[in-house]
Design goal:
mainly alpha, 0% strand, rod-shaped, Murein lipoprotein, Oprl
Length: 96
C-alpha cells in the first residue's frame, strides 16, 4: 500500500512539473504560425530575387570576359603579324 502511494505521488509530481513547464513555455498560436509562414514565404521571394540577380550578373560577367578574350586574341594576331613582318624585313636587309 505504501509503495502504491509512493508511485501515485511520483506520477502526480511528474504531472505537476509537466503542467508548470507547459504553462511557462506557452503554446504556439495560429497567429504565430501564420507569421512564421509569412516570413518563410518572404524569405523564399527574397532568395529567388537574389538568385535571379546573381544569375544576370554572372551572365554579364561572362559576356564581358568573352569580349575581353576576343579582343586579346585579335591583339595577339596583330602582334604576331607585325613580328612576322619585322622578321622578314630584317632578313631582307641582311641579304643585301
Amino acid at each position: 500500500m505504501k509503495e502504491s502511494l509512493m508511485n501515485r505521488s511520483r506520477v502526480l509530481a511528474l504531472v505537476a512539473i509537466t503542467g508548470v513547464y507547459a504553462g511557462l513555455t506557452g503554446c504556439a498560436t495560429n497567429g504565430d504560425i501564420e507569421a512564421l509562414r509569412s516570413e518563410i514565404a518572404q524569405n523564399k521571394k527574397d532568395t529567388a530575387a537574389a538568385t535571379a540577380a546573381a544569375t544576370r550578373e554572372a551572365a554579364d560577367a561572362k559576356a564581358i570576359a568573352q569580349n575581353a578574350l576576343t579582343t586579346a586574341n585579335a591583339a595577339k594576331a596583330t602582334s604576331d603579324d607585325t613580328a612576322s613582318k619585322l622578321d622578314r624585313m630584317f632578313k631582307k636587309a641582311m641579304y643585301k
